[in-house]
Amino acid sequence: MRLAVKLILLDPDDRVLLIHAKDPKSHAECWYPVGGGVEPGESLQLAAARETYEETGLVDLPVGTPVWRRDHRYEFNGQAFDVHEEWLLHRVEHFTPAPANLSPYEARTILGFRWWRAQELLTTTETIFPPELGRLLRDLVAGRHP
Fold it and tell me: Is residue 117 helix, strand or coil?
């Protein structure tokens, strides 16, 4: 099982930044939070800062607060991955993402970015990962931690 860090990048209007991606094999599109694998010897905070910079270009990521964790199996590009996710909340100023260091694989799959409100996540017909993100974000913004 791979250790991963997932980030709730929350702007002053309580919107979360999600990545829009397309599976190269199935062509299914989805939205998911910034984050990725934690490298050997890396702390969660260092992994969060690295992933945020690589995927969005944001530097000087504020220290995050642990909010959730989960074990998860997902499929992408015809492969299955087992991950243990540690979720961190980072309050950030609103910014326009400009990826700084995407892998060739990420460059092929990432279509764009969007800031989402919890209510939008609860009512969208788009595919959001994790599917319960709207409810979790609503509770988090209201001060309720699962």
Answer: coil
Q: Is residue 146 part of a domain?
A: no
Here the CATH number for the domain that contains residue 33 is 3.90.79.10
**pTM (global) more than 0.90:** yes
Cα separation, 52 vs 64, in Å, equals: 12
- Which residues constitute the domain of residue 120? 2-93+102-141
How many separate domains does the chain show?
1
Cα 126 to the center of its chain, rounded Å: 16
| Residue 146's pLDDT band (cuts 50, 70, 90) | low
State the greatest distance between any 2 C-alpha atoms of the chain, in Å, as a whole number: 40
First-to-final CA distance of the chain: 23
pLDDT per residue over 49-99, tens digit each?
999 999 999 999 999 999 999 999 988 888 999 999 999 999 999 999 999
Separation CA 28–CA 125 (nearest Å): 13
- Alpha-carbon span 117 to 124, nearest angstrom: 11
Q: Is the dihedral of CA 56, 3, 138, 64 positive or negative?
A: negative
What distance in Å separates the CA atoms of residue 41 and residue 119, rounded to the nearest whole number?
Answer: 38
